[in-house]
UniProtKB/TrEMBL annotation:
Family classification: Belongs to the DNA polymerase type-Y family.
Protein name: Protein ImuB
Keyword ATP-binding assigned: no
Keyword Transferase: no
InterPro entries membership: DNA/RNA_pol_sf, Rev_trsase/Diguanyl_cyclase, SulA_CellDiv_inhibitor, UmuC
Bias type Low complexity, positions: 1-10
Function noted in UniProt: Poorly processive, error-prone DNA polymerase involved in untargeted mutagenesis. Copies undamaged DNA at stalled replication forks, which arise in vivo from mismatched or misaligned primer ends. These misaligned primers can be extended by PolIV. Exhibits no 3'-5' exonuclease (proofreading) activity. May be involved in translesional synthesis, in conjunction with the beta clamp from PolIII.
Biased composition (Pro residues): 462-481
UniProt keywords, alphabetically: DNA damage
Stretches the record annotates as Disordered: 1-26, 422-481
Transmembrane segments: none
Domain called UmuC: residue spans: 49-176
């Protein structure tokens, strides 16, 4: 274990004379390297010197230092990882286990410094002012905390100190301190891939786009203006841009949650099982988010309080990059309860309370087009949250891109406020070969790979998105009717034009009939066959796509399925 080269920031600990002290931006981050594989190996009693890796969907999510010395890297497929390191121990991912085993680390730090916040298992942060002032400087505080974690948690850690949580976390990975006011300078030479470290926020597509544009460092990205970033890359990129500039991504003024927003329950009889406590936590999470919605608020830091039968008070604070959803709250509470009840010694729980330690106006982190949230956006966000409070979460939905071949399959609706993760879930797996398909406008034959379906959520960082052979190429139709509109495709002599072969029509399209007067066809492209889930009894069956341009400039996407043509989309 190594002591980072921290800086002595005397001003960080000064309290000043008469006036009110300004908020201290200095943050201390404690990072346990390779925590998912460390926790998994510890739970499976794998010796520390054995190469080990945690795999999900046959991809390496995390690997030990020993495995890296054998050439194993994140994102490798299982076969390649085992080819590089035949003695590799393969372990399964388990977020609950990771959180439970990280609790001793958090408890060890908390014994010396208050205000510990678990960002995720393996990383926690706390204000630097307290420990730095108590131990007489940043270097002394870091050395004392490293020894504390090693002694009481039995694991190594690295600590970083910087202005802001993002810079502090990256400094911890490098075991160093960043002088006050120089976080932007520290971040500038780092790779833009550092923006995609947080598993709760998927920025893989943004990082890939920045690289292709030649913006390979955080400094290059930070040099762009915020308005240019918002207009060219989207709203999520604005938050990433602020991180690259060394700024706090959250709004500077946070509302103090009213006392009545806390949700508490007395557990009678006392609870000593995680499943029973988690059941109570689910009801509490619903109450908490209903109360927050009634005030137009969203929670970004959650306090989990518990009292044992012996009178011991337990507290842990969880921080989130985005406002917590009810399901996200339940997950974090369950992980924390698993830590307390699974470690032994905490006894049975007699009371549980959830407290929103930090809140923002609902929708405040969903920045506007130019990077800021206007008053109208805030009012709209509060109104939508209030509608959900009255009618339920499903009453207000928002569209999120997802994977699929047809335009209607490539958008899913999620409740407003839920995590808007872009999913590109692979097609359902079937043993054996899959029927060939054509790749969109190119007409080139493609073959679908046999794939394994993944659970919803983001993929491993290095896992490429599903290819969806035969999917419609960009641009997608601007309008997709909820129900296909039947039409007839006619030749010049009035005969109906139909597919004569997978990639051949039996006539030349000249008119589209249906839903009003016949419309003249001035151009067309295709046809392209689509073979989607042809083996499934409930599958859509074979289909043929055709794009046509009408005399009035309208472009249509037509699909021939079940013996008839349908309008599947309208282009702008």
């Amino acid at each position: 274990m190594s002591t980072p080269g921290t800086t002595e920031a005397g001003g960080a600990t000064g309290t000043g004379g008469g006036g009110r002290a300004e908020p201290d931006p200095r943050v201390l981050a404690v990072w346990s390297p390779d925590w998912p594989v460390t926790a998994a190996a510890r739970a499976a009693h794998v010796p520390a010197d054995r190469p080990a890796a945690v795999l999900h969907a046959n991809r390496v999510l995390a690997c030990s230092a020993t495995a890296r010395r054998h050439g194993v890297r994140r994102g490798l497929r299982r076969r390649e990882a085992q080819a590089r390191c035949p003695e590799l121990v393969v372990l399964a991912p388990d977020p609950g286990r990771d959180a439970r085993l990280f609790e001793p680390v958090a408890a060890a730090v908390e014994a010396l410094a208050p205000g510990v916040e678990v960002v995720r298992p393996g990383l926690l942060v706390l204000p630097a002012r307290g420990p730095v002032g108590w131990f007489g400087g940043e270097r002394a505080a870091v050395e004392r905390l490293i020894d504390q974690v090693a002694l009481h948690a039995g694991t190594e850690c690295q600590i970083g100190v910087a202005d802001g949580m993002f810079a502090a976390a990256l400094a911890a990975r490098r075991g160093r301190g960043v002088p006050p006011g120089r976080s932007a300078e520290f971040l500038a030479p780092l790779e833009v891939a550092e923006l995609d470290r947080d598993p709760d926020v998927d920025r893989a597509a943004l990082v890939d786009l920045l690289r292709r544009l030649g913006l390979r460092s955080l400094g290059a990205f930070a040099s762009l203006s915020e308005s240019d970033v918002a207009s060219r890359f989207g709203t999520d990129a604005v938050a990433a841009h602020r991180l690259a500039r060394g700024l706090d991504p959250r709004p500077p003024a946070r509302r103090v949650p009213p006392e009545e927003l806390s949700a508490a329950v007395e557990l009678d009889p006392p609870v000593d099982r995680v499943d029973a406590a988690a059941f109570a936590a689910r009801a509490l999470a619903t109450r908490l988010h209903t109360a927050l919605a009634g005030h137009g608020l969203a929670c970004t830091r959650l306090g989990v309080h518990a009292r044992t039968e012996s009178g011991e008070e337990l507290l842990r604070v969880w921080r989130c990059a985005e406002p917590l959803t009810p399901s996200g709250t339940v997950d974090r509470v369950r992980w924390q309860l698993d830590s307390w009840l699974g470690r032994g010694g905490s006894g049975t729980l007699v009371a549980l309370r959830l407290t929103p330690e930090d809140t923002v106006v609902a929708g405040a982190l969903q920045r506007g087009l130019w990077g800021d949230v206007g008053e109208g956006d805030e009012r709209a966000g509060r109104a939508l949250v209030r509608v959900q409070a009255l009618l339920g979460p499903e009453a207000v939905l928002t569209a999120v891109p997802t994977g699929g071949r047809d335009p209607g399959e490539r958008v899913r609706l999620v409740p407003w406020g839920d995590e808007r993760v872009v999913e590109d879930t692979a097609v359902p797996a079937r043993p054996g070969p899959v029927a060939p398909a054509r790749d969109g406008a190119t007409g080139a034959p493609g073959h679908a790979e046999q794939v394994t379906p993944e659970p919803p959520g983001r993929r491993p960082p290095a896992d490429p998105p599903a290819t969806w052979p035969g999917r419609l190429p960009a641009p997608s139709p601007a309008t997709v009717p909820p129900d296909p509109v039947p039409v007839r495709l006619l030749a010049a002599d009035g005969a109906e034009v139909c597919p004569a072969a997978p990639d051949l029509l039996d006539g030349v399209p000249r008119r589209v009939a249906g839903g009003g007067p016949d419309r003249e066809v001035t151009g067309w492209a295709g046809p392209w066959p689509v073979h989607a889930r042809w083996w499934a009894p409930d599958g859509p069956g074979p289909a043929v796509r055709l794009q046509v341009v009408l005399a009035d400039g309208t472009a249509l996407l037509l699909v021939h399925r079940g013996g008839r043509w349908e309008v599947a989309g309208v282009y702008d």
